[in-house]
Amino acid sequence: MTRLRKPMFARSIVILLAGLLLQSIPGVSLQAADRPNVVLFIADDVSWNDYGCYGNAAARTPNIDALAESGIRFDQAYLTASSCSPSRSSIITGRYPHNTGRAAELHQPISVHLPWFPQLLREHGYYTAISGKHHMKTTAPTDEHPQRPDPFDHVDGGKAPGDTSGSANWLSVTQERPKDKPFFFWFASYDAHRGWDADKQWDEELYGPMHRAEDVIVPPFLSDDPETRADLASYYNEVTRFDHRIGVVAEELRSQGVFDNTLILILADNGRPFPRAKTRLHDSGMKTALVASWPNGLKWSGQSDQLVSVIDIAPTALKLAGCVVPETVQGVSMQPLFESQSNSIRKYAFSEHNWHDYEAWGRSVRDGEYLFLVNERVDLPWQGPADSVRSPSHQQLRSLREQGELTEAQADVFLSPRPTVALYHTASDPQQLNNLVGNDRFADVEERLAGVLETWMDETGDSVPGKLYPDTFDRETGSRLKPEQIDIVGAFSPGRDRNADQINAPGPR
Questions:
Q1: What's the pLDDT tens digit per position in 15-54?
Q2: A single Pfam family, by name (predicted)?
Q3: Crossing angle of the two packed helices 62-70 and 226-255, in degrees rounded to 10
């Protein structure tokens, strides 16, 4: 027996060493159970406080609420842009919008040399899939920067006959995945983008009764009238459909026995598509719900007040997968936040607002208590994107304006000129209407945050172009302007003059 044990022991050592060697080779996968799966659910145009677990008693989100109850609900999570494609491009690269190249502005491509984190997961043995809204692309390859490998094994638009939600195929993608690999899913719905297709495709057996206009919660910067309430009810319906599909996937993961080893993150790309929300630097546009579920990995559950930026998602997924985080990533892993409620990963969260239908340039920094922002286009109102301007909710505000009946919160939708700088104490001023700039009591806070923002802009290569891309829609009606009304000659995106897409410095954090 002694003679037999030596060869068996030696063979075990060889197998162990071979396994360790395989772990170090890119693209070679260990067993799926060795590393956590990651599922990212991204809503389209949903504000942070339009979920039940964030205090909205009118919006039905039972599945998200349940995941928040057993996981972590982040109460200080912020986007880098309240604009669809810039926000998504920022998340997938782990970089600030102006550091992604032209993608800092709506519908524009990410610089081709920048890696997307799902690509790195795929190279490390993960099965990767995107189902639903994509809205991301790269610039054309060059000799210096050839086309990067495809980041996803599977790509589909998430639509089916009679279902344009973007979430129609999430269940089938989950069911049909390879069972011998860990997986990463980028599940991105079109809910709740205008124009409210859930109303026409509603299935009461699946989603329950449609929301009633009389039950919705009307934010103070909107008009409380039948038209606006109906608009919000249709929006709530889309939020509920998004929630339902999350529940379907979670149940499938449980049935497969992999739910406990799957990190689920739920967020949105920007605020609701209503006035003073989407495209805003204020909480109504830039703050996002962020719910984390991972029974095997979260050491505690409850509410977290620690600052999180969405650029922190990329390094989190990569580190959990055992990947090397590339130097292009400017975010920081959220893993310490999973370990203890008292841990923190950043002192500041930065956001920016660039062209989205309308000319704009704004920047902000948050420290968890205060929001400080600067605006380099003070003569232009921040009324929201064109689809919001065309909405019944915006047009009702126009009617109140003509009658001289706007409240202070409602009037802010049309305010021009706007302040160049603003400082808000977010806890005591949740709508951010009380500008503290010039108040001696807060002079030190203003000076500190102004300095932090200036340092961030300098270190990350941000800039204010002499000519920004102009309006392409009418600011009053939301109608598209004629080509001869749009002068783009000499216009360019922020950071382009400083080659910000080549700069990896994260700035203060």
A1: 344 444 444 444 344 445 679 999 999 999 999 999 999 9
A2: Sulfatase
A3: 60
